[in-house]
Structure formats: structure tokens, C-alpha cells
Design goal:
This protein is an alpha+beta fold. The protein is 72% helix and 12% strand. The chain has six helices and four strands; from the N terminus they run H-H-H-E-H-H-E-E-E-H. The chain has a four-stranded mixed β-sheet. The chain is elongated.
């Protein structure tokens, strides 16, 4: 293996480790956000549940001949819709955090994802406007204070996503967009969210 191959292998290994750490952090952060969002959607959820129960009772009267399997499918659909609504609410809540709180939320992920050397950070247009160069300079100040040999610049390019960021080091990219974070955390959190929504 040549020196260049070893460097490439090291970069890929570091990127894999960073991705695993990001997923773990994302799961913890998503759990916190979803717990808050679940509290906020409880009233709406209760209305949906009551409507679903009323509809189910009506269906039982009107369609006594329909198999219990069909009824279970319908109730499962209602439950799945409610879980979807909780995840959507958590995602939207994160997107619409006040700029300072949103910056703190992202800063933790950035500091733990950053690599040595010079890299650039890409945001969507909205986040680039509300966070901007000042936010990136705060990150660099923290990196210097922690003695890390890493410097980030705000990219002139934007990314077509709803929130989060991408760190770019040459051809290597570390994707920490909110869409990816929520999509990766959802399979591990879905059962827990359902148990919160449907306490019996």
C-alpha cells in the first residue's frame, strides 16, 4: 500500500467514524427534540385519536360484515399517521428554532465532525443568511481555543436541503443535514414515540 493509499484509507476511516459519531449524536438530539415535540402535539393528537375512535365506532356500526383484519389495518393507519405527525412536528420545531438556539444545536455537531486542516461549510440559503460568516468565525474561535488544527470557511455555494450542514474537505463530504439525521434516527425512535403517543 502506497503512502497515498494509506492517507486515503485514513481519511475514509475517519469519515466513517465521524458518520457513526454523528448518527449517535443525532439519535440523542432527535430523542430530545421528539420528546419536546410530542408534548406540543399531545392536544392535537388527542383530537385525532378521538376522531379516529369515533370513526372506528361508526365503521363498526355501518360495516359489521367487514373483517376485523380490515378494521385493524385502518387503526394501524391512524396510528402511523399520528407517529408521522410527531416526527414532522419535531423536524419543523428544529427548523424553526430561534437563530441563536439553532446555531448552538448545529455547533455541537460541527465541532465533533470537523477534521484537521482547511474545510468549508455549506448551508442552505436560509441558514447561510441567518448564521453566516459570524457563526463560522465563532466555530473557528472555539477550534483555536480547543487547540485543534482546523479552520472552516463559509462556502459561497449553498445546498438544496431544509436544514443542517455539509462539511467539505476536497472531494470528501460529511453530510449532517437535518433530513439525513432525522431519517437515520427514525427507525430507532419510532417504537418509543408510538409508546408515548399510545399509552394504554
Amino acid at each position: 500500500m502506497t503512502g497515498i493509499d494509506r492517507i486515503k484509507a485514513k481519511i475514509l476511516d475517519d469519515a466513517r467514524k465521524a458518520a457513526e459519531e454523528n448518527i449517535s449524536r443525532a439519535k440523542q438530539e432527535a430523542e430530545r427534540i421528539i420528546a419536546e415535540a410530542v408534548k406540543q402535539v399531545n392536544e392535537e393528537t388527542e383530537k385525532v385519536r378521538q376522531a379516529a375512535e369515533a370513526e372506528a365506532a361508526d365503521l363498526k356500526k355501518r360495516m359489521a360484515a367487514v373483517s376485523s383484519l380490515e378494521e385493524r389495518k385502518r387503526m394501524l393507519k391512524v396510528r402511523q399517521d399520528m407517529v408521522d405527525a410527531a416526527f414532522r412536528a419535531a423536524f419543523e420545531k428544529t427548523l424553526h428554532l430561534p437563530a441563536e438556539e439553532y446555531g448552538r444545536f448545529l455547533k455541537r455537531f460541527i465541532l465533533e465532525s470537523v477534521r484537521e486542516g482547511e474545510g468549508e461549510i455549506l448551508f442552505n440559503e436560509n441558514d447561510r443568511s441567518r448564521l453566516g460568516a459570524r457563526f463560522v468565525e465563532e466555530i473557528n474561535q472555539t477550534l483555536r481555543a480547543e487547540g485543534k488544527a482546523a479552520v472552516l470557511t463559509l462556502s459561497g455555494q449553498t445546498i438544496p436541503n431544509q436544514g443542517g450542514f455539509v462539511l467539505k474537505y476536497g472531494d470528501m463530504e460529511i453530510n449532517s443535514t437535518l433530513e439525513l439525521i432525522f431519517n437515520m434516527a427514525r427507525p430507532q425512535l419510532e417504537a418509543e414515540v408510538a409508546s408515548i403517543l399510545f399509552k394504554e
